[in-house]
Design goal:
Elements (H helix, E strand, L loop, with lengths): L4 H9 L1 E3 L7 H5 L3 E10 L12 E11 L2 E7 L4 H17 L10 E6 L2 H8 L9 E3 L3 E5 L11 H21 L5 H7 L2 H11 L9 H11 L7 H4 L4 H19 L2 H11 L4 H9 L3 H18 L2
Parallel strand pairs: 4-5, 5-7
Antiparallel strand pairs: 1-2, 2-3, 3-4, 6-7
Helix pairs in contact: 3-5, 5-7, 5-11, 7-10, 8-13, 11-12
The structure holds zinc ion.
């Protein structure tokens, strides 16, 4: 799916190559850089006073990282940002290898601000959202617009690992034609937990002790109520997902996630795939995780 119709329609209609632009020497040193393309496009349908927008250059780079083809599209204001994003991608791709190989290339769109991301994802009222992944596409709010704390190289690599893991999960579980259908059966705790676990983001999640405290205070189940909590309590939902998935990996090994995704690819929905792979229903596993959290609070462990 194309994130921004105005942007993308014009872009595909009038692509023109412009290799060898000045100042690109550093990029050309990157192994696997295939092409650098300049596209004449407009950034919006019209300006705020109703006049047609001035044409602007939309830029693209195509890369091969390991065996993964990535096409990065961005606006000129992110010419410096894209170098950091590509460096982070180069570090991120190997981290996803434990789940297998990508079967489709990735389109990475660097969007100039949060408003553009909200519009492209139709997710309004999520000010904390920085990126969005689909089967073969990542929409990334330009890291140029993050606050200083968030903009570090390590954080960007984490984010890239996280989003690439989502793409790979979809590609392992489904084809391009039916990944949305498969996604509807995969619970948030597994989807976000897998991405957070792969990106080793436990250090930025609420600890299990804090999660246990929150659970005592609210009497809320952050696993089964994740959909309801997602918008306003993302820190709780992501922490529960991270620790539940980590618990799954500790108990069964990383291979279990690969088996679950393979079973979904072969026609099972998530609950059936989980039960076939682990021998227990999903609710038994998640209830066990929550019981562990509750004991955590009692023992202070
Ligand atoms: Zn995610």
């Amino acid at each position: 799916m194309i994130p921004d119709r105005c942007l993308a329609d014009r872009a595909h209609a009038s692509a023109s190559s412009s290799l060898g632009r000045p100042g690109r020497g550093l990029w050309l040193c990157l192994a696997g850089l295939l092409t650098l393309t300049t596209i004449h496009a407009v950034s919006g349908c019209a300006t705020t006073d109703g006049q047609p927008a001035e044409p602007r250059e939309l830029l693209q780079q195509e890369l091969v990282l390991e065996s993964l083809k990535v096409r990065v599209t961005y606006w000129p204001e992110d010419e410096k940002t894209v170098t950091k994003v590509i460096a982070s991608l180069g570090q991120a791709v190997p981290a996803t290898a434990l789940w297998g190989e990508f079967e489709a290339s990735i389109d990475l769109h660097i969007l100039p601000d949060h408003e553009s991301l909200a519009r492209a994802t139709k997710r309004y009222g999520y000010p904390w959202l920085r990126a969005w992944a689909r089967y073969d596409e990542i929409l990334l709010q330009s890291p140029r617009t993050f606050d200083l704390f968030e903009r570090g190289a390590a954080n960007l690599t984490e984010l890239m690992v996280h989003e690439l893991t989502h793409c790979l999960m979809y590609q392992r579980a489904a084809s391009k034609e039916n990944w949305r259908q498969a996604d509807r059966t995969i619970p948030i705790w597994f989807r976000e937990g897998m991405a957070s676990f792969t990106a080793e983001q436990g250090h930025r999640r609420l600890s299990e002790a804090h999660l246990a405290e929150w659970r005592i205070d609210t009497g809320t189940d952050p696993i089964s109520e994740a959909d309801r909590l997602y918008k306003d309590k993302p820190e709780v939902v992501y922490a529960a997902a991270h620790w539940a998935f980590t618990h799954l990996m500790e108990r069964y090994g990383t291979g279990i996630a690969v088996i679950v995704l393979e079973l979904i690819r072969n026609g099972s929905d998530f609950p059936e795939a989980f039960r076939k792979a682990t021998g227990i229903p999903e609710h038994e596993f998640t209830e066990g995780f929550l019981s562990r959290l509750d004991r955590y609070d009692q023992t202070g462990r």
